[in-house]
Amino acid sequence: MKFKSIALTLFSVSVASIFGTTAAQAASFSVLADNLDNPRNFDFGLDGSIYLTTSGKGGDGADQRCVPSPSSQFIPLCAGNTGSLLKIGTDGSTQTVIPDLASLALTPFGEQAAGPADFKFDSKGNAYLLMGYAGNPETSADILKTPSLGKLFKVDLVNGVLGTEVADFAQYEVANNPDGTDIITNPYAMAIKGDTAYVVDGGANVIYSAGLDGSGIKKVAAFPTQPIMQSELEFPSFEPAGEIPPGEQPSDAPGLPAINGQGGEAPSGPPPEGTTQEFPITFQSVPTGITLAPDGSFTTTEYTYFPYPEGKARVFSVNPDTFAIDEKLTGFTQLTGAAYDEQGNLYVLQHMNTSEWKNILQGGEVIGDISSSIIKVAADGTRETIWNGNGLEAASGLTYRDGALYTANRARLAEKGQLVKIDLMSGDKPKKVPEPASVLGLLGVAAAGAASKYGKRKRQEEKLEEILDKVEVL
Predict the structure, then answer these.
(1) Rounded to an integer, what distance in angstroms lies between the CA atom of residue 422 and that of residue 408?
(2) Could you say which DSSP state residue 366 is in?
(3) Could you tell me which residues come within 8 angstroms of residue 70 by beta carbon, excluding any fewer than 6 positions away?
């Protein structure tokens, strides 16, 4: 065997080892809980158990607690008591901690529910549960009769009930409308720092801070809009699925947080070419994820407005003291979660990799690829897809713990939802991977070992110089 072929083979192996697809670096996918109704966000207890919110599947409409959903083609949105807080034990058991919580969902499929949206413990072990909403509480509250929605509660886990009301985001939206657009609310995710809860509302398009001591809402800030030329947006072509009430317009709400419903005026002039109805464009942010960053700020993610332009979802940094909001990253699609690992790497979750209307009809019929993906963003900005599809679908909410990522899978579907774990180390301790700068060092060592076997030191040096010259050219 000639030294040249040995060296090139070793070089190829070295490059594959160092630059190869770490996205497939022995990560594993496992289901911790199955057959759930619209699972959403969660937190870990001291014993390692996971407390998971399920937004339920609404009601069947028999009691007439329904309103046309402007965020979902006016399909009936009906109320029921099908939401819950679950406890997933380390032994795989599932226990209902709080049953029969308020839920709103599209009928008859129970898709895109709003109800229990997030659960978190504070540093003292107190538990808090966030309830979402499905639109404008000003006009729907009397019909739906769901007074617990749109609020944050301190939870009584011992007795399995909602405890003290901490904050009423729905009422705040009605009274103040902080982003100055339509009156819609959907508290979607939260993080706790000290004695304060920080809540992103994908309907109101804002971030709130609320005192856990009962002092109520402290601060609020609206996320920046993102104007895009209508000619650059891709629209579906379909008729409304439900009967349009007089004077109503389709809303600009996203699918999963459809209940994040945005609303707004339809644009003047003819509809986009190829469409059969007018679509409102309000450029709203629709924040859906929040996590505490290593520097003490909050990192938030957005879903973007209808028609959910691909590659336009952003990541923001929020100063918890001033509530200044800065755009941190862009170039994602329909983000619904974020998390950091011990090294400060950021992971973001794409709910679907392409605009949701291409893949799933309002009501729950899957017509395309609903694959989700998790993207790792290193401190230097390098991006790497950790997991793409392969069982991960329409996911929402992301948490990192002990070398693994956890998310609610099929988070917008009734009876099909899951809680899943993606183990980044697949049960093994991570091996130290050399930095790219050490490629030449590895190559030199490997090649020298192979060449010495043939006792051709001088030839070895000549060949190494040739290889190094080729590396420089590459």
Answers:
(1) 11
(2) B
(3) 135, 248, 249, 250, 251, 253, 261, 263
